[in-house]
């Protein structure tokens, strides 16, 4: 769906996206990283199970919710990637903590 | 102990940056809070370190943001990035989510410069992955150097759509089609506003230049588009629409839509500030005087959050609100405030003269709301359809708040931001009453969802209070 | 406007339940309501259909509450069939959780006192220690030392209940007049004229169920409804997968999956606002009960005004001066909805409250003042 215009030569961190490792520019949003690396959809809706993915990219639509390091309902467009971060698709309403 | 600031500024877009810098230069102790990690807001996003090898892609106007950010950095105003505001109380306490930690500060005055968001317009399939806003596309371009991989379809109306098309062309992106949904009758309706707009000739000339740029690149521009639909199961596969009385279909995996911008009014509304329905911009905006003062004591608004005026107008409004803050806090007297304000006010007035023309020229078709198909989702979070809203209205729901409780419309995590404007209009249309009378969702805290652990970690004599 | 048999003033849960019950009995009704921004306790409700702990000091209220809880399953089913709106009612039994031995002892004493005066059959409650509670409520926090369980307790979606009552009332031919704030009520020969900011409405009988608005309107009917607002703040989280199968007094998971966390009790007048202090307090207590709520985002906090009488028990009256005028006021509009629709509406239709309702009269406050 999206591609990078060019390699910006930025410092990179390693994250996992649905279990697969990816090297992504430090400082980038989780949403941008996951879009480039093909996370599709980002989540399924809590009401009907419909597929969803980022819509607004500015934090007002809440359709980019994913599970980050085990915590569901994180706004992918508002969270920056970090070394070792585990990003996962969220199925329906999130699970409560263990 | 809760930190106290003389002036708190919320938002680091053009209005917030200008307000904070101006106020700090006048000697006020200023703190600026913004949920983004870097200054610029949405319009100048990533302005301090764009990942683009060739920033010229973004155009000249973008560079003005770099100057603003630089002046702000040099002003001495305290800057709190990644620090969103989740609560405002009438006593000017600000509940912050500062890099994930909840805390409170208080302020003598507050300037809310929360900016705008894209107008959410429901259409069939708008919740499918692969349907995004033009603003989202631009944010990915500015902050991550990302562009559509294959033929992107752009649809809707408004200057941002043209700007994004031009930026994509400069970056070598292939645009499958630009579906212009501007009602053809708008041009005639906008004509009476043209003479006033001519004083801001530069703005108009830029718009015309964008159109020429798109035309020269050979982009397929389809005029008079209606009945936009996004088709697909798991994701967008095709875009369907009507034009010239014919049903059309384009295969695509990415559709970027835009229907203008509206103030992000949840913040101002949460304070109980009165809001007016702007029948030209088709949105709610807070009632404020010429300095941005609102009905909430000590709270001013500046920039697009107070009514859409664009980046330059936002910058000027930010300066005016800062001058007024300096007067209210005793740094300058009214005469000095007025003296300093005069040139800013003149520039603002000039900038605003072009608005009525642009507002009408790019006004979205009323049928987008009034003719919404019953099975189209209006509330993305709770998946409430237009038909369900009409049914509830038929059952005696007279306003958005009763509708919310009857259908859960607006109860999800976006807190009504995506459906609120549509709901007020749809109820008004269904009942045949003006939107102003219908009202809007009552906004309750938190302004953004906040974790239970973060709430629990706040200081306070909680046990005694409850 | 033509006359109707009965005017019900107030479109909240109490008024809507009575109007619905009247319409089911074939009584011609008009439900007169305020607008979209009315103080509406019914929209801020926690949604418990609750028995345990209710009626300490007024056995009649304990019995009335229990009767309503017994009526609820069939009431919910019929309402759902008639309107197509599910109230998401469930009666798995409910818990009261205690964080100290003293609190548990107090709760146990309270329940004993109520049971001693109660004539209803069957086991009323159980007292459970932490271990026994944790078996029934997996994930229970260590801070909970014990609690009580009552099998008659349940919960529902109070917002859908309100909608269903309105839809049911309309489907049975009842008329609904929104955006009519009542300015005055004029008793006349053989009836009443209700003056609203949207015109006059006439009827033979009138039921005053206007919540906090009843205090102002009651004297016009020779009645007294001495209610004052008591604010309650409630937090609601984003939806989560099902985890908590039973309602508890301060935490419940709704049918949709969100958790409701309650609630404060504040005397702040007509202020529906929210306060950071109460939010923090409510969040801490909820985490004490169920630590697994830790990462859930709170999406909304609201303050709503409970309709409180001086002793906290309901007021039901019929005017001596104007025999066609009734009043109904309480803070348990959800729990009592079934009894209001199925019993109270019948009394109104028959034109008289039964003898055992004498204890609910606001006269009781006059007696106290005299003493």
Brief description of this entry?
Chain B contains 18 helices and 23 strands.
Structure, described:
The complex is a heterotrimer of chains A (98), B (466) and C (371). Chain A is mainly beta. Chain A has one domain (12-88): Roll (Ubiquitin-like (UB roll)). Helix content of chain A is 7%, strand content 34%. In chain A, the strands form two sheets. Chain A has a five-stranded mixed sheet, with helices on one face. In chain A, a hairpin with a 2-residue loop joins strand 2 (12-17) and strand 3 (20-25). The radius of gyration of chain A is 13 Å and the shape is globular. Chain B has three domains: 3-117 and 262-332, FAD/NAD(P)-binding domain (3-Layer(bba) Sandwich); 120-259, FAD/NAD(P)-binding domain (3-Layer(bba) Sandwich); 367-438, Orthogonal Bundle (Arc Repressor Mutant, subunit A). Chain B has 18 helices and 23 strands. In chain B, strands 1, 2, 3, 4, 5, 6 and 20 form a seven-stranded mixed sheet that branches. Chain B has a five-stranded parallel sheet with strand order 8-16-10-11-12. In chain B, helix 4 (159-170) links the parallel strand 10 and strand 11. The longest helix of chain B is centred in the last third of the chain and has 19 residues, at 334-352. Chain C has nine helices and 17 strands. In chain C, the strands form four sheets. In chain C, strands 1, 2, 8, 9, 10, 11, 16 and 17 form an eight-stranded mixed sheet that branches. In chain C, a hairpin with a 2-residue loop joins strand 9 and strand 10. Strand 1 of chain A pairs antiparallel with strand 9 (146-148) of chain B.
């Amino acid at each position: 769906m999206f591609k990078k215009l060019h390699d910006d030569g930025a410092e990179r961190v390693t994250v996992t996206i649905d279990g697969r490792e990816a090297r992504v520019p430090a400082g980038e949003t989780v949403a941008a990283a996951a879009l480039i690396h093909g996370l599709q959809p980002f989540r399924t809706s809590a009401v009907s199970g419909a597929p969803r993915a980022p819509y607004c990219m500015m934090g007002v639509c809440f359709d980019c919710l994913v599970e980050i390091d085990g915590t569901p309902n994180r706004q992918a467009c508002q969270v920056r990637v970090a070394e070792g971060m585990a990003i996962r698709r969220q199925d329906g309403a999130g699970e409560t903590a263990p | 102990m809760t930190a106290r600031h003389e002036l708190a500024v919320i938002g680091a877009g053009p209005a917030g940056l200008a307000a904070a810098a101006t106020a700090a230069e006048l000697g006020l102790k200023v703190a600026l809070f913004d949920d983004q990690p870097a200054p610029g807001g949405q319009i100048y996003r990533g302005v301090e370190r764009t990942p683009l090898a060739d920033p010229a892609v973004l155009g000249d106007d973008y560079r003005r943001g770099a100057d603003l950010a630089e002046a702000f950095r040099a002003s001495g105003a305290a800057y709190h990035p990644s620090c969103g505001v989740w609560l405002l109380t009438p006593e000017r306490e600000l509940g912050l989510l500062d890099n994930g930690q909840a805390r409170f500060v208080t302020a003598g005055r507050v300037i809310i410069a929360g900016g705008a968001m894209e107008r959410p317009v429901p259409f069939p399939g708008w919740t499918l992955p692969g349907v995004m806003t033009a603003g989202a596309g631009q944010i990915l371009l500015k902050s991550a150097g990302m562009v559509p991989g294959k033929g992107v379809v752009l649809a809707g109306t408004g200057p941002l759509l043209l700007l994004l098309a031009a930026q994509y062309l400069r970056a070598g992106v292939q645009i499958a089609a630009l579906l212009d949904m501007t009602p053809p009758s708008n041009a005639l309706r906008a004509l009476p506003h043209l003479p006033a707009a001519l004083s801001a000739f530069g703005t108009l000339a830029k718009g015309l230049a964008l159109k020429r740029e798109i035309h020269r690149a050979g982009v397929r521009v389809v005029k008079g588009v209606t009945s936009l639909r996004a088709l697909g199961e798991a994701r967008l596969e095709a875009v369907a629409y009507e034009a010239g009385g014919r049903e059309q279909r384009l295969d695509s995996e990415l559709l970027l839509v835009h229907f203008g911008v509206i103030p992000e009014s949840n913040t101002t509304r949460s304070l109980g500030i009165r809001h007016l329905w702007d029948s030209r911009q088709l949105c709610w905006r807070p009632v404020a005087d010429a300095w941005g003062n609102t009905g909430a004591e000590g709270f001013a608004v500046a920039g697009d959050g107070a009514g859409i005026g664009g980046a330059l107008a936002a910058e000027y409004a930010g300066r005016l609100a800062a001058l007024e803050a300096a007067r209210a806090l005793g740094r300058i007297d009214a005469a000095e405030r007025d003296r300093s304000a005069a040139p800013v006010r003149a520039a603002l007035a000039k900038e605003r003269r072009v608005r009525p023309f642009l507002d009408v020229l790019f006004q979205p078709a009323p049928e987008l709301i009034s003719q919404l198909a019953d099975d189209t989702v209006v509330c993305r979070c709770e998946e409430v359809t237009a038909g369900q809203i009409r049914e509830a209205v038929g059952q005696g729901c007279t306003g958005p708040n009763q509708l919310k409780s009857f259908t859960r419309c607006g109860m999800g995590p976006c807190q009504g931001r995506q459906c609120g404007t549509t709901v007020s209009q749809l109820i008004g249309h269904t009942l045949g009453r003006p939107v102003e009378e219908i009202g809007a969702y009552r906004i309750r805290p938190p302004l953004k969802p906040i974790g239970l652990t973060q709430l629990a970690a706040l200081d306070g004599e909680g046990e005694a209070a409850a | 406007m033509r006359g109707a048999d009965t005017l019900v003033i107030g479109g909240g849960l109490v008024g809507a339940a009575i109007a619905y019950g009247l319409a089911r009995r074939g009584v011609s009704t008009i439900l007169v309501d305020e607008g979209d921004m009315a103080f509406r306790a019914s929209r801020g409700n926690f949604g418990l259909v609750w028995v345990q702990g209710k009626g300490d000091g007024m056995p009649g209220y304990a019995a009335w509450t229990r009767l309503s809880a017994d009526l609820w399953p069939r009431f919910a089913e019929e309402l759902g069939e008639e309107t197509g709106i599910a109230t998401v009612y469930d009666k798995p039994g409910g818990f009261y959780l205690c964080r100290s031995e003293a609190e548990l002892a107090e709760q146990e004493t309270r329940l004993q006192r109520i049971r001693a005066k109660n004539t209803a059959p069957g086991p009323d409650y159980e007292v459970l220690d932490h271990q026994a509670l944790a078996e029934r409520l997996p994930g229970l926090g260590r801070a909970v030392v014990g609690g009580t369980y009552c099998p008659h307790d349940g919960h529902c979606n109070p917002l859908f209940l309100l909608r269903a009552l309105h839809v049911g009332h309309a489907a049975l031919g009842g008329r609904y007049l929104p955006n009519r704030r009542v300015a005055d009520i004029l008793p006349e020969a053989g009836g009443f004229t209700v003056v609203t900011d949207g015109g006059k409405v006439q009827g033979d009988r009138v039921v005053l169920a206007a919540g906090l608005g009843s205090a102002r309107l009651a004297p016009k009917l020779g009645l007294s409804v001495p209610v004052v607002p008591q604010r309650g703040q409630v937090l609601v989280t984003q939806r989560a997968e099902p985890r908590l199968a039973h309602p508890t007094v301060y935490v419940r998971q709704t049918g949709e999956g969100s958790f409701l966390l309650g609630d404060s009790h504040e005397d702040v007048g007509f202020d529906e606002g929210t306060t950071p202090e109460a939010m923090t307090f409510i969040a801490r207590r909820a985490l004490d009960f169920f630590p697994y709520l830790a990462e859930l985002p709170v999406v909304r906090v609201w303050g709503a005004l409970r309709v409180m009488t001086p002793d906290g028990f309901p007021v039901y009256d019929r005017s001596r001066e104007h025999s066609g005028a009734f009043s109904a006021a309480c803070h348990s509009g959800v729990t009592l909805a079934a009894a209001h629709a199925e019993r109270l509406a019948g009394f109104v239709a028959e034109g008289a409250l039964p003898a055992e309702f004498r204890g609910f009269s606001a006269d009781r406050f006059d007696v106290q003042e005299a003493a």
